[in-house]
Design brief:
This is Prostacyclin synthase. This protein has 492 residues and is of the alpha+beta class. The chain is built from 19 helices and 13 strands. It has a domain of 316 residues: Cytochrome p450, CATH 1.10.630. The chain has a six-stranded mixed beta sheet.
């Protein structure tokens, strides 16, 4: 009797294992489940996604499916085939996975808001006349902060700081003042934001330790309170960007508590990338003298009516083209922007690749594009992809280079720091302008040099792959001082 029960239970276990064990079908991508049941490759993926996916690419090619914490994720690394994923709104969906991540990180749910309505509101405020006003406000705040931070220091007195800390602090505070228009708590918001942002990837992956969880929850709740509107609900026509956003949420039926939480999501979305991007750009310039001289030479050619910090100048970056500066920024983003474009398969789909092959994608699976690995770090597209080349995006006649190839076919997507298609980052133009304004101000108004002339840029923090701009694992120590007013353009 006992033997019969044992055989029955053993057989039942085998049937359960067979039922829940994934097997690759004939027309599906290569399947790599990993050695750990259910968990699969989750640990390796979370530790260093770029290293892991590069290993999978070498093993399986440009398309493969991996198991990650119970999910099956098909990774597509052929940029010539990206449109089949980016443009599909019938078989693929990006909202469900995004909403789950937003709930996990920001404890936020906005079920009444349609993504199209929110995007339409964002586009209205980050395009056209609204964008021009934001850019102008950002430029003024950057100048004022740069000047006020030098208060108490003599004109020839050097200051020392970490470059990442300097860039993140200045750009974050200027962005916060521009969008949220709150001058009373800027320093406190920045301090809490950095604590929260440092734990954000662990929040997303549910890998916080007990002490870290308490810190993350405390910073999140503190930020909710700090970002609470300073005006009464309802009333006058929205004036500031934040006021307009809350007005939009109210019209969509979002309650006051979720409005506070939504403000933190917007703060992170708008401020998490510019500071790190400026750090890498300046870091590459400081460690590549030829690139620094090329950018300074271009800046010297710009016509400035007034370069005084006390009187806001006409922004020369808006009045003149800067192809060298733009190439340096594009190269910086190629090396350090690591977004992941994710979709959920809501109906079985046949994926047609650019090479003519077809693969079946199962309903319930996920699809991931990782442009950092391909096209951005693909040696067939970008020669010596690990090396910073400031003129990589320049033609010989100093015009923008936009022709890149893979397998002798010209690429539509050769650098994707902002995503692509209908879901491309709405604030791209605002972010690009802010980064360029910031770097321009520092180069024209500060003497800056590395404390150690032989220093190298720190390595990237590998846990940040998939979350926008990479951040450094460490910092680059620099010293700087204000230039004398009459020397600002002569000595640049």
């Amino acid at each position: 009797m006992l033997w019969t029960i044992f055989l029955f239970l053993n057989g039942l276990l085998i049937l359960v294992l067979l039922y829940f064990t994934r097997r690759r079908q004939k027309n599906e991508p290569p399947l790599d489940k990993g050695l750990i049941p259910w968990l699969g490759h989750a640990l390796e993926f979370g530790k260093d996604a770029a290293k892991f996916l590069a290993r999978m690419k070498e093993k399986h090619g440009d398309i493969f499916t991996v198991r990650v914490a119970g999910h099956y994720v098909t990774v597509l690394l052929d940029p010539n085939s990206f449109d089949a994923i980016i443009n599909d709104t019938v078989f693929l969906d990006f909202t469900r996975a995004r909403n789950q991540l937003v709930k996990r990180i920001f404890s936020l749910q906005l079920p009444s808001i349609k993504p199209t309505a929110e995007r339409k509101w964002m586009e209205r405020h980050f395009h056209g006349l609204h964008l021009s006003k934001l850019n102008s406000s950002m430029n003024i705040h950057l100048q004022n902060l740069l000047l006020s931070d030098q208060t108490g220091f003599g004109p020839s007195e050097w200051r020392q700081d970490g470059l990442f800390s300097l860039c993140y602090s200045l750009l974050f505070r200027a962005g916060y003042l521009t969008l949220f228009e709150r001058k009373d708590n800027t320093a406190t918001v920045y301090k809490e934001f950095r604590k929260f942002d440092n734990l954000l990837t662990k929040l997303a992956r549910c890998s916080l330790k007990q002490g870290e969880r308490e810190t993350a929850n405390s910073s999140r709740e503190r930020l909710w309170e700090l970002l609470s509107p300073s005006w009464p609900s309802g009333g006058s026509e929205p004036a500031s960007w934040q006021h307009s956003y809350h007005h939009f949420l109210q019209e969509e039926g979002v309650d006051a508590e979720m409005q506070k939480r939504a403000s933190l999501l917007q703060l992170w979305t708008t401020q998490c990338n510019a500071g790190p991007a400026a750090f890498w750009l300046l870091g590459f310039l400081l460690t590549h003298p030829e690139a620094m001289e090329a950018v300074k030479s271009e800046i010297r050619c710009l016509t400035l009516q007034d370069t005084s910090l006390q009187h806001p100048p006409i922004n020369p970056l808006e009045a003149h083209s800067t192809p060298v500066f733009d190439s340096v920024l594009s190269e910086t983003l190629r090396l350090t922007a690591a977004v992941m474009i994710n979709r959920e398969v809501v109906q079985d789909k046949i994926l047609r690749m650019a090479n003519g092959k077809e693969y079946h994608l199962r309903q319930g699976d996920r699809v991931c594009l990782f442009p950092f690995l391909s096209p951005q770090m693909d040696p067939e597209i970008h020669q010596d992809p690990q090396i910073f080349k400031y003129d990589r995006f320049l033609n010989e006649d100093i015009t923008v280079k936009d022709k890149f190839y893979k397998k002798e076919k010209r690429l539509k997507y050769y650098n994707l720091p902002w995503g692509a298609g209908k879901n491309i980052c709405v604030g791209k133009e605002f972010a690009v302008t802010a980064i360029k304004q910031f770097v321009f101000l520092l180069l024209t108004h500060l003497d800056m040099e590395m404390c150690d002339p032989e220093a190298k840029l720190p390595p990237v923090n590998p846990s940040r792959y998939g979350f926008g701009m990479l951040q450094p694992d460490g910092d680059l120590q620099v010293r700087y001082r204000l230039k004398m007013p009459q020397h600002r353009m002569l000595l640049i």
